[in-house]
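Customer escalation, tier 2.

The customer says the design service returned an amino acid string that "doesn't look like it belongs to this structure." They asked us to rerun it and document both sides in this ticket. The original structure tokens are below, unchanged.
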């Protein structure tokens, strides 16, 4: 399977990130490594989307602080970015709404319709004509013809800061408007681009709690988008999926990360990191990166908080 026939994936993680831990970043890395090893996917970007302040979780600090901590946590990553859209809305957004927002955003930026699990896009991302080497065509004529990096998106509007995605090499693909009339002389290559929800097995288990999730949203999340699950604390994901009719129905859309790395997934726990901060426990360095710890101490977050 060539790069052009593999499914190109953007991983999206929604959560409180209160604060973001080393384990959250490890989840991205493990998911990307696993998807690459399957030979079916190329992960081209990761999105960290902190929840809105009105989510109402006890002990949730302001999104202003959580966004900064997330940005500090991913500052050395060349593929994971923090997106503030969810925090900037008037109220709390469902996970389904966040996925749909990013799908629509990717459509506008790349000029193609993103596929979902069951209905791959029939609108191609326009590629270079075969056996020809014309000058690239861009929606924005100010874009340099030979960018030095493979990243796309940058800023979409002044209010969004950096969003995240990595563009396939522009030497191979040129992104244009999906409705552009390029005539019939060009032969096109098509790539499939999908956004997958990245989560831990605890979120998967929450799908099984009656009334907690809107069933229509679950159908969209699992049925249309698909999810990548990183197991926590040796969770039995097969047992979890068997407890939900929707998870059983779309079992093929749920990819469980299986690797040989024995990560202590307890380091994902924001709760344990907050307790370590409150108790002055030196093991907080096991949970949080040093830039995040420094920011927490400087801002006096969590230190005297409970929960």
């Amino acid at each position: 399977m060539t790069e052009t026939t593999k499914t190109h994936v953007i991983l999206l993680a929604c959560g409180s990130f209160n604060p973001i831990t080393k384990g959250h970043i490890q989840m991205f890395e493990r998911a990307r490594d696993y998807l690459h090893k399957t030979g079916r996917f190329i992960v081209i970007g990761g999105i960290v989307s902190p929840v809105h302040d009105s989510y109402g979780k006890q002990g949730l600090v302001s999104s202003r602080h959580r966004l900064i901590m997330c940005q500090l946590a991913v500052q050395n990553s060349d593929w994971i970015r923090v997106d503030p859209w969810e925090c900037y809305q008037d109220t709390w957004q469902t996970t389904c709404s966040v996925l749909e927002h990013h799908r629509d955003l990717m459509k506008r930026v790349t000029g193609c319709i993103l596929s979902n699990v069951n209905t791959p896009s029939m609108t191609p991302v326009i590629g270079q004509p075969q056996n020809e080497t014309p000058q690239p065509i861009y929606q924005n004529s100010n874009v340099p013809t030979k960018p030095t990096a493979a990243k796309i998106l940058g800023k979409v509007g002044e209010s969004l800061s950096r969003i995240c995605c990595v563009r396939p090499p522009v030497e191979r693909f040129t992104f244009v408007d999906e409705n552009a009339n390029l005539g019939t002389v060009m032969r096109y290559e098509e790539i499939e681009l999908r956004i997958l929800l990245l989560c831990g097995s605890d979120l998967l288990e929450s799908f099984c709690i009656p009334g907690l999730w809107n069933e229509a949203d679950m159908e969209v999340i699992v049925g249309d988008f698909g999810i990548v699950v990183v197991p926590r604390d040796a969770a039995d994901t097969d047992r979890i999926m068997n407890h939900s009719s929707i998870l059983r129905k779309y079992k093929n859309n749920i990819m469980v990360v299986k690797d040989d790395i024995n990560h202590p997934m307890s380091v994902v726990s924001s709760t344990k990191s907050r307790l370590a901060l409150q108790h002055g426990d030196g093991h907080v360095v096991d949970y949080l990166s040093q830039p995040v710890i420094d920011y927490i101490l400087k801002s006096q977050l969590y230190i005297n908080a409970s929960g």
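Tier 2 assessment: The sequence is consistent with the input. DSSP finds eleven helices and six strands in the chain. Strands lie at 7-15, 41-50, 80-82, 192-200, 227-230, 254-256. Sent an explanation to the customer and offered a walkthrough call.
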